[in-house]
Amino acid sequence: MTFTTRFRMGAAALVAAGALATAAPAFGQTPAPTTDPTAPTKLTDLKARADEAVKDRLSAIDTLTGRINGAGADCGQNADVAGQLASDRSGLQSLDATIQAETDGHKAVAEYKQIFTDFRIYWLQTPKTHDVVACDRMSKADATLTSLRQKIQARVDEAKAKGYDVSAAQAALDDMGTKLTAATSSAGQASSSVADLQPDKGNQTVLQSNLTALQSGRQDLHTAWSDLQTARHDARTAIDDLKNLHKS
Length: 248
Description:
About 75% of the residues lie in helices and about 0% in strands. With about 250 residues, the chain is mainly α. The chain has one domain (about 40-245). It is rod-shaped and about 90 Å long. The two termini are about 20 Å apart.
C-alpha cells in the first residue's frame, strides 16, 4: 500500500468520526413573563389551585434534574443547579403543606403568591437548566473535536516530514484550534453567568435583570455553537487536503 493511499484511507476514517462529532444542544428559551396568577377568593379553591401549581412544578423539577443528571459532561455548574432544584423541591413541598393547613385567608393569599415569586421554576430555573446542560453538551462535543484535531495533526505532521505540502491543512487546523478555544470560553461564560441567578420574589428589577442575563447567556451559547460548527468544517477541510497530498 502506498503512502498516499494509506493517508486517503485514514482520512476517510477521520471524515466518519468528524461527522458524528457534534449534536445540536437544546438552548434554553426564556418565557416572556406576563403576570403572576391571582389567588382564588375562596380558601378551598385557593388550596386546590396551590396544590395543583406545586405538583406541576415538582414534575418540572424532576424533568430538569433528569436533564442535569443525563448531560454526560459538566461545565462546572451541574452540582450547583441540581442543588438549587433539590432545594426548590423541598421548599415547594413545605409551602404547599403550609397552605393546606392555613385557616387565615389573608395569609393564604400571600403564601399562594410565593409559589410563583419565590421559586420561578418556569421563568428562571427551566431556561437556566437548559443553558447549563447546553454548555455541558458543547463541552462534550469540544472534547470530541479536540481529539479529532489531534489525530489529524498527527497525520499532517507525518506528511510534512515526508515532504508533502500541508500548508492548507495546517491552516485549517490552526483555525480549528482557535474556534474550539473560543467555543469553550463562550459556553462556559453562558453557564457560569446564569447558574447563580436567584428568584426575584416579586422584585421587578431583579426579574428583568434575570431575564437579561438569560438572554445574554443564550446569545453566548449560540456563538459557541457557531464556533463548534466552524471547527468541524475546518476538520473536514484539513481531511480533504490530506486526501489530495502532493509534494512541495
